[in-house]
Write a structure and sequence with these properties.
The protein is mainly α and 69 residues long. It has 2 helices and no strands. It starts with a helix and ends with a helix.
């Protein structure tokens, strides 16, 4: 009997809290859209940074190799 009361109380809490999260579906969708856009912008910055770092490394390597000759 004790276990069934805990299960009933837990399931009641889950059902009550899930309805509180589903109040405004449009706000949730716009939040997800904003997060995806932010992630894409961050990804673009990382790719640009890696390409720039590789170009700088290549340029420094060429300068150092030409100085050794």
């Amino acid at each position: 009997m004790k276990f069934s009361n805990k299960v009933l109380l837990g399931s009641t809490a889950v059902v009550a809290s899930s309805s509180a999260f589903a109040t405004d579906a449009n706000a949730i969708g716009s939040a997800i859209t904003a997060a995806v856009a932010s992630g894409q912008a961050n990804y673009s910055l990382v790719v640009i940074g890696i390409i720039g770092l590789a170009a700088i490394g290549f340029g420094v390597g060429m300068i150092v190799s030409s100085m050794r000759k």
